[in-house]
Design brief:
The structure holds two protein chains of two kinds. By secondary structure, chain A is mainly alpha-helical. Chain A is built from 19 helices and two strands. A two-stranded antiparallel sheet of chain A has the order 1-2. In chain A, strand 1 and strand 2 form a beta hairpin. In chain A, helix 6 packs antiparallel against helix 8. Chain A starts with 5 loop residues before the first helix and ends in a 14-residue tail after the last helix. In chain B, a hairpin with a 4-residue loop joins strand 1 and strand 2. Chain B has a domain of 220 residues. Helix content of chain B is 74%, strand content 1%. By secondary structure, chain B is an all-alpha fold. A two-stranded antiparallel sheet of chain B has the order 1-2. The chains are: A mainly alpha, B mainly alpha.
């Protein structure tokens, strides 16, 4: 089983698929859709191979491929997977076929649309599986371009503005990261024989505290934009709202996770002292984000914008978990990354389904939909409940772990964070009530078509997974935990400033 | 110099130049006998000449030799650049064909002048002597003055030509003055290695600084570095667009080659003096070029200012030279070579697309690029590829060009310059994307398809493919550059 390079197969299948699709004439739209679906499904199957060969219980990287790329600069093609990246890769490959299915309603410029989606998938998977900093940076940047076009060409309303804002915000952030990466590259010269971009050799490069803080901030600039942390979040509501449904799903479910993933993989692992020192400030930002995102979400009158702001709040929980400095927090944060991907991805898909039926996203335009589309309403309710953290559904396990860990390490800081969950219940349930309950006031809402076959195919696996993680999170957590443990150890045992060591462990 | 006239000449070493000279003369003569309708034949003839020159260059690969008493050197550096000049020449010919065939007369003269200017580039690559460098830079510039004014009926073309001429002559005068000071300082040596020996430890540092300063200012005009850039946008806009493409690549690169050779061969010992000058020049050039580019509405002017900003990245390499750490200098020069090569291809690509569009159903105004994607997906995709490459975004080679300059800068520990470059890259992304945005996200205002000639389309396609290949496997270019440092 280990003989097949499932990871690299997963990584490049979408790109190869995209290249093949270039050859299909653009008139054959049905074939193009079908090809995209086949390619993404095959990618998902290949990623199941990654999952099957993954050995839980070991913290290090598995299924590593090493090829030389630019040897003279110490740049290699190195990919691998561990407990942190495994579920991100699975999340990406799982959601992509659903995105293709939801894009069945795209009628204009079908060919470039699907080619861009497939290219995007390779970019995202590359971000999660690169173990070479240069390779990582290339994939990180490569994600920008297809997403820019997806928002700009197939988006709604102020799509052009949103696309430009998305591109420039991300680019500005990532250039600071580039400088940090290059500094780290030359700093590694002392410890290894020649400077290298190999992630595994770079971890543990000794750096003075001041340098650590500067470099950490360089990475942080890039990741905090992506996550996003308040006050760098302003691109998010625009991009998420104006993007086509598949774009919104990918933005929320995967692109935001790239930021959180980067914080774990690079921010904490490379610069543990800086991370530990800055943790209280970052946690404060995360809590501000939780409350701010939730409060703004309450007053939205556009469903999609509401979901977008809810992401700001949810990602606050993720960052909170990553930086409290305990294993529960880290595991909970990582699990929450997966959960948010599923729940918010599902919410965007559902909002897309509503939009396809009514061509509006204004809450006031809906009302009483539960009568005309009972199945859609039911699924919507399950997803809403999972998003607000109802026990028994996926959102609960992650948020609970994060809050528990926050309480253990930071005591009363947990109170405002918990309040965020209350607010989530308010904005989600209130919006749900206004959309699906009450009297039907607008005639157009009376006779809407309920779920079609295509939509059942999309939502049944999604809901199954949401319930599965909620009821039985163990198989997910046990693959995350060894890696989470290792990162927390790195965070707490780093050596430059011993007086703060173990601070996070002692409440 | 006396020896140069009597010592035996290594004819093979100067074969590329001889071939190109022969073809330039041939084009001029053949043109006289061609009927008006067949004048376009000068272009295929020139293209064959460029290819033959390229072949002659290839035949020299692997050899290291000097001729003309050491003032003319054939090494990997020279060969790489000669090869690059041939590529530039070929692409410019491809851009010119459609443009000159349908409109302007003087086709034969134009191709003759183009080949002459290209010859200057080839000479510059090998020049290791003050006089040769001077001749080379003039050989590049003077045909340029005339080519710029070829659209005789257009006042803008006249203005462009005159401006270019006046600035060019002024810069030549300043440069010559600096060179004459060097000549005096070194006790009458013109060969760069002799100058280096003479200057090293001569104790005349203020005077050396003054002469270097004059030379740098002179070259500053040629490479359109800020604050010596004023002529460039007007000249590019007024000149026939293929000429603008040539000026912004071949002519500019010629200037850079001269500058690199001078600084590395003659003045490395006094690098501490001139390094800060280049750091300031690079910062100004990048920042001013980018900021002004933001406001441009004419694609050629946009490319002019973008070209100015791009020069800044090459200048960075000169601001990193450090004779005390050869590793840093080597990397700086390597990054400059990589940048120059990639810049030439992507910039020409963008010019080619702009000219093709303006000739076939469009204009030069960026507003009129709206919806180009729907009118000509191929042209829009190609232009987007070139623009993304110029912006330094994947999946094009431009990303590597910028990354290598960053790498060299961090290695030299000049962090502030790296931050300046980073900020500039974001500013630049804005105006490149503004064009992309128009092409893809807006509805077309002009009607009808855009039929790009097949030959030009093929050349652009190959250029884009090359950029893509270099992105996927950069050793193609980095290893060449590594072997080709001075």
């Amino acid at each position: 089983m280990n003989d097949l390079p499932f990871l690299d197969l997963t990584l490049f299948l979408p790109l190869v698929g995209a290249l093949v699709m270039v050859l299909i004439p653009k008139r054959w739209e049905a074939l193009l859709r079908l090809a995209a679906l086949v390619v993404t499904t095959a990618t998902f199957v290949a990623s199941l191979g990654v999952l099957a060969s993954f050995e839980s219980g070991t913290p290090g990287f598995q299924q590593v491929t090493e090829l030389s790329w630019i040897p003279e600069w110490g740049i290699g093609y190195i990919t691998g997977v561990d407990g942190v990246s495994l579920w991100m890769i699975m999340l990406t490959t799982f959601l992509m076929p659903l995105c293709i299915l939801t894009s069945w309603t795209i009628k204009t410029q079908v060919k470039p649309y699907f080619i861009l989606l497939l290219t995007l998938e390779t970019g995202m998977l590359g971000v999660f599986s690169s173990l070479d900093m240069f390779l990582f940076y290339v994939f990180w940047e490569a994600v920008l371009v297809p997403m820019y076009f997806l928002i700009g060409m197939w988006g709604h309303g102020r799509r052009v503005y949103a696309a430009m804002k998305f591109f420039l915000f991300t680019l500005a952030g990532s250039l600071f990261m580039l400088l940090s990466i290059l500094y780290l590259y030359f700093a590694s010269q002392g410890s290894a024989a020649a400077p290298t971009f190999d992630y595994r050799s770079l971890v543990g490069t000794p750096l003075a505290l001041e340098v650590q803080i500067l470099l950490f901030l360089g990475f942080f600039a890039s990741f905090a934009v992506k996550v996003p942390l308040v006050p760098l979040h302003t691109w998010l509501p625009d991009a998420h709202t104006e993007a086509p449904t598949a774009g919104s799903v990918m933005l929320a479910a995967v692109l935001l996770k790239m930021g959180a993933y980067g914080l774990i993989r690079f921010g904490i692992a490379f610069f543990p002292d800086a991370a530990r020192l800055l943790a209280p400030a970052i946690i404060a930002l995360a809590i501000v984000g939780i409350l701010y995102g939730a409060l703004i979400a309450i007053v939205q009158h556009d469903v999609k914008r509401l979901v977008a702001y809810s992401s700001v709040a949810h990602l606050g929980f993720v960052v909170l978990g990553l930086f409290v400095g305990t294993i529960q927090g880290m595991s909970g944060g990582i699990l929450q990354m997966l959960n948010h991907g599923l729940s918010t991805g599902a919410l965007f898909l559902l909002v897309g389904a509503l939009y396809d039926r009514r061509h509006t996203r204004e809450i006031s335009e809906f009302g009483g939909l539960a009568r005309s589309v009972p199945v859609l309403a039911g699924i919507f309710l399950i997803v809403v409940l999972s998003s607000l953290g109802l026990p028994g559904l996926n959102g609960f396990a992650g948020e609970f772990l994060v809050l528990l860990a926050t309480y253990q390490s930071y005591g009363w800081w947990v109170i405002p964070a918990t309040f965020g969950i209350v607010l989530a219940a308010i904005y989600l349930l209130w919006a749900y009530q206004r959309v699906f309950h009450g009297a039907v006031s607008i005639e157009a809402n009376r006779n809407l078509e309920d779920f079609r076959m295509r939509e059942y195919v999309m939502f049944v696996p999604l809901v199954a997974l949401i319930v599965a993680i909620g009821v039985y999170p163990k198989p997910f957590l046990e693959r995350i935990e060894p890696s989470a443990k290792q990162i927390v150890r790195q965070l707490n045992d780093a050596s430059v400033i011993p007086e703060t060591r173990g601070l996070a462990e002692a409440p | 110099m006396q020896g140069a006239l009597t010592s035996p000449v290594d004819w093979h070493a100067i074969a590329p130049e001889l071939v190109l000279t022969a073809f330039a003369c041939l084009v001029l003569v053949v043109d006289l006998f061609l009927a008006e309708r067949a004048k376009w034949l000068a272009m295929p003839l020139s293209a064959i000449g460029v290819l033959a020159t390229g072949a002659a260059t290839l035949s020299l690969v692997g050899s290291e030799r000097t001729t003309l008493s050491g003032s003319y050197e054939i090494d990997a550096f020279a060969l790489l650049l000669k090869g690059l000049f041939c590529v530039i020449g070929f692409i410019v010919l491809a851009i010119s064909f459609d443009y000159f065939r349908s409109g302007i007369r003087y086709q034969g003269e134009y191709y003759f002048l183009l080949l002459c200017s290209l010859l200057g580039g080839l000479v510059m690559s090998s020049a290791r002597d003050l006089v040769t460098i001077f001749i080379a830079i003039e050989l590049i510039s003077v045909p340029g003055f005339i080519m710029t004014g070829l659209r005789k009926g257009d006042p803008k073309s006249n203005e462009a030509s005159l401006k270019f001429f006046l600035f060019g002559v002024l810069s030549t005068a300043v440069m010559l003055y600096g060179m004459s000071l060097i000549y005096g300082l070194s006790g009458g040596a013109t060969r760069l290695d002799r100058i280096r020996e003479a200057i090293d430890g001569s104790g005349n540092e203020p005077l050396v600084m003054l002469s270097v300063f004059f030379v740098v200012v002179g070259f500053g005009f040629k490479i359109s570095a800020v604050p010596f850039h004023f002529w460039a946008p007007d000249t590019y806009e007024g000149a026939p667009s293929p000429v603008a493409a040539f000026l912004s690549t071949a002519s500019k690169i010629g200037g850079f080659v001269g500058l690199l050779v001078l600084m590395f061969k003659a003045f490395p010992e006094v690098a501490d003096i001139w390094r800060p000058v280049f750091a300031v020049l690079a910062t100004l050039t990048m920042t001013v070029g980018n900021l002004i580019a933001l406001k441009q509405r004419h694609i050629i002017r946009l490319l002019a200012y973008s070209g100015i900003a791009q020069s800044g990245y090459i200048l960075v390499a000169l601001a990193l030279i450090d004779p005390s750490s050869p590793g840093v200098s080597r990397q700086a020069l390597e990054s400059a070579l990589v940048y120059i090569a990639i810049y030439a291809v992507m910039d020409l690509g963008a010019f080619a697309a702009a000219v093709a569009y303006a000739r076939r159903g469009g204009t030069y105004f960026i507003d009129d690029y709206a919806g180009l994607w729907q009118r000509s997906p191929v042209l829009a995709t190609l232009l987007t590829g070139f623009l993304l490459s110029l912006a330094g975004a994947p999946p094009m080679a431009g990303a590597w060009a910028k990354l290598f300059v960053f790498l060299a800068t961090i290695n030299a520990q000049v962090y502030w310059l790296a931050v300046v470059m980073g900020v500039n890259a974001v500013i630049a992304a804005w105006y490149y994307l503004a064009v992309v945005k128009r092409m893809f996200f807006e509805a077309p205002e002009l009607e009808g398809p855009v039929e790009v000639p097949y030959f030009l389309r093929a050349v652009m396609g190959v250029a884009a493919l090359a950029l893509l290949v270099v992105f996927i496997y950069p050793p193609v270019i980095t290893e060449l550059a590594e072997r080709s440092i001075l």
